[in-house]
Amino acid sequence: MILDWAGLESLLCNAGHSLYGGEAISQLEHALQSAECAERDGASAALTTAALLHDLGHLVSGQADDDLANGIDDRHEQIGIAALRGLFGDDVLAPIALHVAAKRYLCAVEPTYLAELSPASCLSLALQGGVMTTAEAERFDRNPHAAAAIALRRWDDEAKVVGKTTPTLGHYLAIARGAARTTAGALQ
């Protein structure tokens, strides 16, 4: 499924109310909190959009909670970027594609990071390949989008606060439109 603007908004509004992978907040709450963290920290429109949409693949697949409970990695980051490719370029898509790898990387290079993960994040880490090896971490560190993916990962980890008030989805979709591809046919 490749999303257009109407499909993106509909997916977030309708499927976004499902629980976020073993956490006590919804997918939409997590998305809005992640975007708010990015905006708070002065991230670009592209990186704020990546923060908003980094887990969209869970909504596209519709299987996130069942897959996690059944010990299956749904590869949501790949599903998400495939669905968003018509709307955004690599400045949005690359951090989304790398946010799972960024968790694995941080577990390898920061001794306290793994201990601070939520139980649901620890479970998904095991399903996603576990802590990176030294060679994998060195390769990740050389990626030109590594810093953006690490920033996104930290906002992802922070964005699990029950009852937190955030700006609206409309606010962040306006930012996303500003980060959209400018090639013919991408904007609607």
From TrEMBL:
Residues 29-99 form the HD domain. This is HD domain-containing protein.
